[in-house]
């Protein structure tokens, strides 16, 4: 199946890395409609172009601390239909939790080393632009380490593995392949997670997203 062309706003203050990413994304069928070197430029570009997804470096000028992630949170609050994929050399668990506080749909957080893995990076972009979630495994691990006691602590080791992979935006089939178990076994673990998190089936609620959010809220 041919993936649709994504429109992208790219925020990265390193000109070399920014130019390289523009070339990489263009070669993979994405259309970079604007680039930004500062957080205000990013917000303005998203306001103007309304892209499918904004790719945002967490640390940007002038202080190179959290300007990018603050802008991402602002965009998330004001223009929720724009997907947000943040990337960083560092795991910022507090800001990751804040970014995900309004919902996991359409949000991604990757470490910069993943960008070099072109297939993974572009797949994450499409997932986020389509309303999915793409969380770096190391980010998920970082979020888990800060956990306080709650439903997560009632999970078995296998249920934790399944939930961690759910938080990365994986499907049941993908989880089954990763853990080398049957898809039916994954379904049973997911159902157990729902029960332990008190998430009952309704006609409208997405329990999968709610489980991930509950997990991130408890861990972050």
From TrEMBL:
UniProt keyword Glycosyltransferase present: no
Q: Which InterPro entries match?
A: CheY-like_superfamily, NreC/VraR/RcsB-like_REC, Sig_transdc_resp-reg_receiver, Tscrpt_reg_LuxR_C, WalR-like, WH-like_DNA-bd_sf
Give the top-rank taxon of the lineage listed in the UniProt record for this protein. Bacteria
List the residue ranges forming a coiled coil, or say none.
Answer: none
All copies of the Response regulatory domain together span 7-127
Pfam families linked? GerE, Response_reg
Positions of modified residues (4-aspartylphosphate): 57
Keywords, A to Z? DNA-binding, Phosphoprotein, Transcription, Transcription regulation
- Where's the HTH luxR-type domain? 148-219
Q: Enumerate the PROSITE patterns for this protein.
A: HTH_LUXR_2, RESPONSE_REGULATORY
> What protein is this chain from?
Response regulator transcription factor
């Amino acid at each position: 199946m041919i993936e649709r062309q994504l429109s992208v706003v790219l925020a990265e203050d390193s000109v070399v890395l920014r130019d390289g990413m523009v070339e990489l994304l263009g070669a993979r069928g994405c259309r970079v409609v604007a680039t930004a070197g500062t957080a205000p430029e990013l917000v303005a570009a998203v306001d103007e172009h309304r892209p499918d997804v904004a790719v945002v470096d967490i640390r940007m000028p002038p202080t190179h601390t959290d300007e990018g992630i603050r802008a991402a949170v602002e965009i998330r609050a004001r223009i929720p239909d724009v997907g947000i994929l943040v990337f960083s050399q560092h795991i910022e668990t507090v800001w990751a939790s804040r970014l995900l506080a309004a919902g996991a749909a359409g949000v991604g957080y990757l470490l910069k080393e993943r960008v070099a893995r072109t297939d993974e990076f572009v797949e994450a972009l499409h997932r986020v632009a389509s309303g999915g979630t793409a969380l770096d495994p190391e980010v998920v691990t970082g979020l888990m380490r800060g956990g306080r006691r709650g439903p997560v602590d009632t999970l078995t080791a296998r249920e934790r593995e399944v939930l961690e992979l759910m938080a990365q935006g994986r499907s049941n089939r993908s989880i089954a392949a990763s853990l080398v178990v049957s898809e039916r076994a994954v379904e049973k673990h997911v159902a157990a997670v729902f029960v332990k998190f008190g998430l009952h089936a309704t006609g409208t609620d997405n329990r999968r997203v709610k489980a991930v959010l509950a997990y991130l809220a408890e861990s972050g």
